[in-house]
Amino acid sequence: MPKQIKLHKRERVAQILQAALAIAPTVGYNRMTRDQIAAHCGIPSSLIAYHCGTMCDLRRAVMREAVRVECLAVIAQGIVMGDRHAKRASDDLRARAMGSVR
């Protein structure tokens, strides 16, 4: 693995969430792994655990970020799986997300 660039916590978490949002639409929001995200970021998976906690914590953060940036494919997966953060998205955003998978 190439030498890592040291980032502030906020920047590293943003990098991890961005990678997860890139992976989730194809792999599946509930099926993505730390290793997949780590490979996408070029960092060890232990850094993901350090910054984001458990996979449940990570998935919650990913869904909150998906709602924030309106990543429709991930939101749609969350709605189907009953994710509470996806269900709390605005009616318009939920409708657009579900419309994007048809």
Structural account:
- With 102 residues, the protein is mainly α.
- The protein has one domain: Orthogonal Bundle (Tetracycline Repressor, domain 2), CATH 1.10.357.
- Helices cover 72% and strands 0% of the residues.
- The termini are far apart.
- The model has no long low-confidence stretch (mean pLDDT 91).
Could you name the key traits of this structure?
102 residues, mainly alpha, Tetracycline Repressor, domain 2, 72% helix
Short description:
The chain has seven helices and no strands. With 102 residues, it is an all-alpha fold. It is elongated and about 40 Å long.
Provide the number of structural domains. Answer: 1
CATH topology-level fold name: Tetracycline Repressor, domain 2
In the CATH scheme, the class would be: Mainly Alpha
CA distance, first residue to last residue: 39 Å
What's the quaternary structure here? single chain
| N to C succession of SSEs | HHHHHHH
Broad shape: elongated
List the helices and strands and how they pair.
Elements: H1 9-27, H2 34-41, H3 45-52, H4 55-69, H5 72-81, H6 84-87, H7 91-99
Helix pairs in contact: 1-2, 1-4, 2-3, 5-7
